[in-house]
Amino acid sequence: MLVIIGFNRATEFDFKQYKRGDKMTTSRTRIEEGSKMIFWFIRFYSLKYLGKFWSKPICTCPTCMTSVHSTYVYAFFLFMVHFQIEWIVFYPIYILALAGLSSIVNSLVP
Fold first, then answer.
1. Which of 11, 49, 76, 81 is deepest in the core (most CB within 10 A)?
2. Rounded Cα gap, residues 16 and 25, in angstroms
3. Neighbour-count burial of 37, counting CB atoms closer than 10 A to its CB (0-12 exposed, 13-18 middle, 19+ buried)
4. Which phi and psi angles does 18 have, rounded to 5°?
5. With contact defined as beta carbons under 8 Å apart, do 57 and 65 qualify?
Protein backbone atom coordinates (compact mmCIF):
# COMPACT_ATOMS: atom_id res chain seq x y z
CA MET A 1 0.00 0.00 0.00
CA LEU A 2 2.87 2.38 0.76
CA VAL A 3 4.42 1.61 -2.62
CA ILE A 4 1.15 2.49 -4.34
CA ILE A 5 0.66 5.76 -2.44
CA GLY A 6 4.33 6.65 -2.93
CA PHE A 7 4.26 5.93 -6.66
CA ASN A 8 1.06 7.93 -7.03
CA ARG A 9 2.64 10.93 -5.31
CA ALA A 10 5.93 10.56 -7.23
CA THR A 11 4.12 10.87 -10.59
CA GLU A 12 2.27 14.10 -9.80
CA PHE A 13 2.49 17.32 -11.78
CA ASP A 14 0.18 20.22 -12.62
CA PHE A 15 -0.90 21.41 -16.05
CA LYS A 16 -0.57 25.14 -16.76
CA GLN A 17 -3.69 27.21 -16.42
CA TYR A 18 -4.30 30.25 -18.56
CA LYS A 19 -7.07 32.78 -18.99
CA ARG A 20 -9.22 32.38 -22.08
CA GLY A 21 -11.67 35.22 -22.29
CA ASP A 22 -13.21 35.46 -18.84
CA LYS A 23 -12.64 31.78 -17.93
CA MET A 24 -9.61 29.91 -16.63
CA THR A 25 -8.67 26.98 -18.89
CA THR A 26 -6.25 24.15 -18.20
CA SER A 27 -3.72 23.21 -20.86
CA ARG A 28 -3.35 19.48 -21.56
CA THR A 29 0.08 19.83 -23.19
CA ARG A 30 2.00 22.33 -21.03
CA ILE A 31 3.22 21.50 -17.56
CA GLU A 32 3.59 24.02 -14.76
CA GLU A 33 7.31 24.35 -13.97
CA GLY A 34 8.14 23.48 -10.40
CA SER A 35 5.19 21.11 -10.03
CA LYS A 36 6.93 18.05 -11.48
CA MET A 37 7.75 15.18 -9.15
CA ILE A 38 10.49 12.66 -9.96
CA PHE A 39 8.37 10.31 -12.12
CA TRP A 40 6.08 12.99 -13.62
CA PHE A 41 6.70 11.69 -17.16
CA ILE A 42 5.03 8.34 -16.40
CA ARG A 43 1.74 10.05 -15.59
CA PHE A 44 2.09 12.56 -18.44
CA TYR A 45 2.63 9.93 -21.14
CA SER A 46 0.10 7.58 -19.59
CA LEU A 47 -2.54 10.30 -19.81
CA LYS A 48 -1.39 11.28 -23.29
CA TYR A 49 -1.37 7.83 -24.90
CA LEU A 50 -3.71 5.71 -22.75
CA GLY A 51 -6.27 8.33 -21.76
CA LYS A 52 -7.76 9.21 -18.41
CA PHE A 53 -9.59 5.91 -17.83
CA TRP A 54 -6.69 3.54 -18.60
CA SER A 55 -4.22 5.69 -16.65
CA LYS A 56 -6.08 5.06 -13.40
CA PRO A 57 -4.64 1.59 -12.68
CA ILE A 58 -1.15 2.75 -13.65
CA CYS A 59 -0.66 5.99 -11.72
CA THR A 60 -3.65 8.27 -11.16
CA CYS A 61 -6.02 6.43 -8.78
CA PRO A 62 -4.54 4.70 -5.69
CA THR A 63 -7.60 2.49 -5.28
CA CYS A 64 -7.46 1.38 -8.92
CA MET A 65 -3.68 0.98 -8.79
CA THR A 66 -4.06 -1.98 -6.43
CA SER A 67 -5.24 -4.17 -9.31
CA VAL A 68 -1.95 -3.70 -11.22
CA HIS A 69 0.65 -2.91 -8.58
CA SER A 70 -0.37 -5.69 -6.22
CA THR A 71 0.57 -8.37 -8.75
CA TYR A 72 4.33 -8.05 -8.44
CA VAL A 73 4.25 -7.75 -4.64
CA TYR A 74 2.00 -10.80 -4.26
CA ALA A 75 4.01 -12.78 -6.83
CA PHE A 76 7.24 -11.90 -5.01
CA PHE A 77 5.70 -13.12 -1.76
CA LEU A 78 4.47 -16.37 -3.33
CA PHE A 79 7.84 -17.23 -4.80
CA MET A 80 9.88 -16.23 -1.75
CA VAL A 81 8.01 -18.65 0.49
CA HIS A 82 7.05 -22.20 -0.39
CA PHE A 83 4.51 -21.81 -3.21
CA GLN A 84 1.14 -23.46 -2.70
CA ILE A 85 -1.67 -23.31 -5.24
CA GLU A 86 -4.23 -22.55 -2.51
CA TRP A 87 -2.65 -19.12 -1.92
CA ILE A 88 -3.82 -17.94 -5.33
CA VAL A 89 -7.37 -18.12 -3.97
CA PHE A 90 -6.46 -15.41 -1.44
CA TYR A 91 -5.28 -12.99 -4.14
CA PRO A 92 -8.75 -11.42 -4.77
CA ILE A 93 -9.14 -10.95 -1.00
CA TYR A 94 -5.69 -9.35 -0.90
CA ILE A 95 -6.63 -6.92 -3.71
CA LEU A 96 -9.88 -5.91 -2.00
CA ALA A 97 -8.18 -5.40 1.36
CA LEU A 98 -5.38 -3.41 -0.25
CA ALA A 99 -7.84 -1.27 -2.22
CA GLY A 100 -9.77 -0.44 0.92
CA LEU A 101 -6.64 0.35 2.89
CA SER A 102 -5.16 2.52 0.15
CA SER A 103 -8.47 4.44 -0.12
CA ILE A 104 -8.43 5.14 3.59
CA VAL A 105 -4.79 6.19 3.68
CA ASN A 106 -5.14 8.31 0.53
CA SER A 107 -8.12 10.15 2.02
CA LEU A 108 -6.10 10.95 5.16
CA VAL A 109 -3.02 12.26 3.35
CA PRO A 110 -3.48 15.75 1.89
1. 11
2. 9
3. middle
4. -140, 160
5. yes
Percent of the chain with pLDDT over 70: 100
Neighbours of 72 (CB within 10 A): 10
* C-alpha 93 chain-centroid distance: 20
**Contact call for residues 31 and 13 (beta carbons, < 8 A):** yes
In terms of DSSP H, where are the helices of the chain?
A: 2-10, 40-55, 62-80, 91-108
Residues 7-49 have pLDDT tens digits of 999 999 988 887 777 787 777 778 888 889 999 999 999 999 9
What lies within 8 Å, CB to CB, of 63 at 6+ separation is: 99, 102, 103, 106
Give the span between the Cα atoms of 16 and 62, in whole angstroms: 24
Rounded Cα–Cα distance for residues 108 and 99 (Å):
14
